[in-house]
Design brief:
Layout lengths: L13 H39 L8 H20 L5 H25 L4 H29 L2 H30 L17 H7 L12 H20 L2 H20 L7 H4 L2 H13 L6 H11 L5 H29 L1 H21 L5 H27 L7 H28 L13 H31 L3
Helix pairs in contact: 1-4, 1-5, 1-6, 2-4, 2-7, 2-15, 3-4, 4-5, 4-15, 5-12, 5-14, 7-8, 7-15, 10-14, 10-15, 10-16, 11-12, 12-13, 12-14, 13-14, 13-16
């Protein structure tokens, strides 16, 4: 006669799993913040780095290649959360982040700095730190109590905005000392490994083999789509379309694809993801627009502009932190349109105030970023609420993908309007030349969140149907 002991899985109990999830989410959030801080820092000083390594013409690759990697791994990591152990995924991510950090510093500080050692290190860091961001969202969506989800989604977007603002200052300070020290900022996150090993679930999914072929096809399609909006090479778009069509055929024929046709037949999810597609479309344009206005209209330097814009980042962080409590009191269906209204008002006010002084423009930017900080928690909760728990990892992956691709398309289109000085021949506020162009582009951007509000009110009954 044999005795069998049943070991209870703590992740099967909602109360226990929620408590363990909170313990894991804090170090994951700190890791994501430090990794994003490093990313934002290099985005600011990449031109200086290019000069220092003797390759100023190729300096943009320092941000472009890691940005491409980020766009791909955002989707893959989130989706893998439905199939593989989050514990193993995070171990690989933190170790990769640490190796990239140390390699980047040693190879470019101890030894002569080189463009490709910088790029390789940044790719390793980007691939590593995004594990923390994706794992955070998967754990929050799968294991937290419903009332805690909106709180931690709000903290996530607040963390991003805080890291963006600190990254600007850190890069400014370190660029005058040695930019190589930026590599070391996220290296400290390796100390979180024991805590994460203790508090992350060891197994995900049902033990099926990972559909690497499907991930490869979808990843390549996403890569070429992202590259197209960076370089506007039409053959890249054509290849992306062919690959996406091939992926569609593949998931109808494969035995066990990582994502099925039924996933895309979920009309509630399609309506909800459309909100992210529209609301996030103009997200990336405000910083370059303010830089352009500061330089051409007010004669300001980039540093002076950043000293103003940083307050808008802090407003976004504050609203992100408070968004969970606001959603808890007012509800998702009320807060989401409020956030969209603030975003639209910020852009429209900027268009009307282009000649009213840069402090007034900064206040308009704060209005937009208040909406952006408030938007993340309710819109992500809305989209993930249309999926089952077993699909939440792929839902996180698709969210990240749309949040990266949509604003990339937006910045490509709006940048073209900016460089062409489009709409400079007329102005509703009496501006002329470049100021008229920027005013009208802001007004055009303000129509996008209004379109998002129309989508929301048109489909909200369908999206929130039980």
């Amino acid at each position: 006669m044999s005795n069998t002991a049943t070991v209870r899985n703590p992740w099967s109990d909602p109360e226990t799993s929620s408590k363990m999830a909170v313990k894991a989410l804090i170090p994951l959030l700190v890791t994501f913040i430090l990794g994003t801080l490093c990313l934002q820092g290099f985005n600011l000083v990449f031109a200086q780095v290019g000069e220092d390594v003797g390759a100023p013409a190729q300096a943009s690759l320092i941000t472009a290649i890691p940005g491409l990697v980020l766009g791909i791994v955002c989707f893959i990591y989130g989706s893998l959360g439905d199939f593989v152990s989050l514990k193993k995924l995070v171990v690989v991510g933190l170790v990769t982040l640490f190796i990239g950090s140390i390699f980047g510093f040693v190879a470019n500080f101890i030894f002569p700095a080189n463009l490709w050692t910088v790029i390789i290190a940044r790719v390793l860091q980007t691939a590593g730190e995004q594990v923390a961001g994706s794992a955070f969202l998967v754990v929050a969506s799968k294991y937290l109590k419903p009332e805690l989800k909106v709180v931690f989604f709000g903290l996530f977007t607040a963390g991003y905005q805080i890291s963006a603002s600190i990254g600007v200052f850190a890069a400014g300070i370190l660029s005058s000392i040695a930019w190589q020290y930026l590599f070391l900022i996220p290296a400290v996150t390796i100390v979180f490994l024991p805590l994460l090993l203790k508090n992350l679930p060891d197994r995900q999914g049902d033990g099926e083999k990972i559909d690497w072929r499907g991930f490869l096809i979808f990843g390549l399609a996403t890569a070429f789509l992202t590259l197209f909006f960076s370089y506007m090479a039409w053959w890249m778009l054509a290849l992306a379309v062919v690959l996406f069509i091939g992926f569609g055929v593949y998931i109808t024929k494969a035995d066990k694809p990582f994502i099925t046709v039924d996933f895309f037949k979920n009309t509630r999810w399609l309506c909800a993801i459309a909100l992210i597609l529209v609301f996030y479309f103009p997200q990336y344009i405000i910083s370059p627009m303010f830089n352009a206005i500061g330089a051409s209209v007010y004669g300001m330097t980039t540093t002076q502009v950043s000293m103003h814009i940083v307050f808008a980042f802090l407003v976004a962080a504050a609203f992100g932190i408070c968004s969970g409590g606001i959603v808890g009191k007012l509800g998702i269906r009320v807060v989401l349109p409020i956030a969209g209204t603030l975003m639209a008002a910020g852009y429209i006010a900027s268009g009307l105030a282009v000649n009213s002084g840069f402090i007034v423009l900064t206040l308009c930017a704060c209005l937009y970023y208040a909406g952006q900080g408030l938007m993340y928690s309710p819109v992500v909760s809305t989209v993930l609420g249309t999926l089952s728990q077993d699909e939440s990892g792929r839902g996180v992956g698709m969210n990240d993908l749309v949040m990266n691709v949509s604003p990339s398309i937006g910045i490509a289109l709006f940048s073209g309007l900016m460089s062409a000085q489009a709409f400079s021949g007329f102005s509703v506020v009496g501006a002329t030349g470049a100021a008229a162009s920027y005013s009208n582009i802001f007004l055009l951007a303000g129509l996008v969140p209004i379109l998002g509000l129309l989508v929301f009110f048109a489909f909200r009954k369908r999206i929130y149907a039980d």
